[in-house]
Amino acid sequence: MAGTTNDLIYEVLKAVQRDVGVVRNDVNDLKHQMNAVRTHLTAIQQDVGNIYNRLGHLEDRVDRIEVRLGLVEPTH
Question: Cα separations (Å) of 30 from 11, 44, 53?
């Protein structure tokens, strides 16, 4: 009876070990996916920053054009 109990415990432990291995692989895959998402998010943040920068330059140009055309009073 003790041998059967040890064999059953051993089989259960092997199954748990396999499951832990699967979970470990899944966690590693999720880490890689999260790093990819983080990389893309950083790129998007940089793109948005560049867009704001360009928009600021365009706004300055439009302001100068409006002043030259006499559409608005100079702010200086």
Answer: 29, 21, 34
Phi, psi torsion values for 16, nearest 5 degrees: -65, -40
CB 50 within 8 A of CB 57: no
* Side-chain half-sphere CA neighbours of 64 within 13 A: 6
**H helix or E strand, kind and range, residue 1:** none
Is pLDDT of 3 > 80? no
Task: Tell me whether residue 67 is exposed, middle or buried, using C-beta atoms within 10 angstroms of its C-beta: 0 to 12, 13 to 18, 19 or more.
Answer: middle
Q: What pLDDT digit, counting tens, does each position of 46-64 carry?
A: 999 999 999 999 999 999 9
CA dihedral 25, 31, 36, 38 (to 10 degrees): 170
Radius of gyration of the chain (CA): 32
Supply the pTM of this predicted model: 0.66
